[in-house]
Amino acid sequence: MLNERCVKLGKVRSVIRELFEYGNARKAQIGEDKVFDFSLGNPSVPPPAQFDEVLSDLIKNSDPVSLHGYTSAPGAPDVRAAVANYINNTFGDHVELCDIYMTCGAAAAITITLCALCNPGDEVLTFVPYFPEYEVFAGQAGAKLVPVKTEEGTFDIDIGAFRRALSPATKAVIINSPNNPSGVVYSKESIRQLCAALEEHSRALGSPVYLISDEPYRELVYGGEEVPYVMDYYKNSVVCYSFSKSLSVPGERIGYIAVNKEAEEREDVFAAVCGAGRSLGYVCAPSLLQRVCARLLGKTSDISVYERNRDRLCAALEEYGYKVVRPQGAFYLFVQSLERDAEAFSQRAKLFELLLVPGDGFGCEGYVRISYCVSPDMIERSLPAFRALAESYGIIK
Ligand code: PLP
To answer: Which of 44, 241, 245 to mutate to test the pocket of ligand 1 (most atoms within 8 A of CB)?
Structure first.
């Protein structure tokens, strides 16, 4: 018999992918510009010019054998040192080279981290709405993902609900700020309260509960919003970072894990990360990309486009009567569906060629996600369809 869990995972496509494939088929039928595809979080702006410059410099001026050869399993030492320096110079003295593990993006970083920290039966808490793949990543570690409700209307951390969700089985908490799909950025105060609760719970259990910060959108914030660095607040913390969105290179698969050097079980945590990476086959992240990213730390593609899209879309949708949670970061808009059943609403939106992802998969009923990492031109062209959709519900006349 095959591995049933894997067969099932391989057969059931994610709702997002399903909608994306539908969009491609529909575009082939009626034309690319007639379909308003807001399904995927694929950056619409190119990588910064320096990306190509660094890439060609490396190709022209490095020894090709070592450039394309295996690096050490956790990554090239000079790359890990550059990442550690960047973190320390930007956020404070938190890591050394020996705390950094290069990965194939955030997906691998989270999977490795959960496999490193969890035993079968452990619980991993996360806040609603959450990235649907967390269920899959936790499942791989034999752990159970426990969604925790957030504040009505803002999706900020509900500290009371969080404290009630903690149990003797809690091993870790995953936060994602700026958040996919709500765009919320957790404030310093929210993080402080979260960490105070984690400290109390760890003391009561007599063993650390880990805080995992999933950070593919760290730099994508608007209006000067600040994203607290978890290592400033909690010693038993791990950051899972990705260059996918900041540099617009999601297909290149590159990111890293950073373990706080103050973590109580620092050495064992990093050993477990290496062991998990080894057993999952996630060793030696793409060698060329490791080198490119080490020279582009802190750089981003032109993210001002996303801010303009956010402003245009929020203003128009509010005018048409939609209830929008104004995002502070990332490139998603979480909007209340105009009927209780978000799946039915998403189906109706398709009649207007709008592809909106139902929020149920993010653990949140009654909402749809709009990925606004698209061209400003597409946003503009889609507005009559959003208006017509609202009209069809009698929201505006
Ligand atoms: N975490 C969140 C919240 C995401 O939105 C994504 C991708 O969209 C990932 C993780 C995975 O990112 P990566 O492409 O770096 O694997």
So the answer is: 245
Q: Is the CB of 363 under 6 A from ligand 1?
A: no
Residues 120 and 78 in one domain: yes
The CATH code of the domain that includes 162 is 3.40.640.10
Task: Report whether residue 175 contacts ligand 1, using a CB cutoff of 6 Å.
Answer: no
* End-to-end alpha carbon distance in the chain: 58
Task: Decide whether any atom of ligand 1 lies within 6 Å of the 183 Cβ.
Answer: no
How many angstroms does the Cα of residue 311 sit away from the middle of ligand 1? 23
Query: Given 263, 294, 325, which residue is the final one in a domain?
Result: 294
pTM: 0.96
For the sheet with 367-371, list strands across it.
Answer: 324-325, 332-336, 367-371, 357-358
Neighbours of 254 (CB within 10 A): 25
CA of 73 to the centre of ligand 1 (A): 22
Backbone CA torsion sign across 118, 122, 128, 132: positive
Both structure tokens of 270: 């990093």
Residues 255 and 240 sit within 8 Å (Cβ to Cβ) = yes
In whole angstroms, what is the distance from residue 192 CA to residue 229 CA?
11
Please list the pLDDT of the chain residue by residue as tens digits (397 residues).
999 999 999 998 788 888 999 999 999 999 999 999 999 999 999 999 999 999 999 999 999 999 999 999 999 999 999 999 999 999 999 999 999 999 999 999 999 999 999 999 999 999 999 999 999 999 999 999 999 999 998 999 999 999 999 999 999 999 999 999 999 999 999 999 999 999 999 999 999 999 999 999 999 999 888 999 999 999 999 999 999 999 999 999 999 999 999 999 999 999 999 999 999 999 999 999 999 999 999 999 999 999 999 999 999 999 999 999 899 999 999 999 999 999 999 999 999 999 999 999 999 999 999 999 999 999 999 999 999 999 999 987 5
In a domain, 397, yes or no: no
Q: Is the CB of 178 under 6 A from ligand 1?
A: no
Quote the ligand 1 centre to 350 CA distance (angstroms): 25
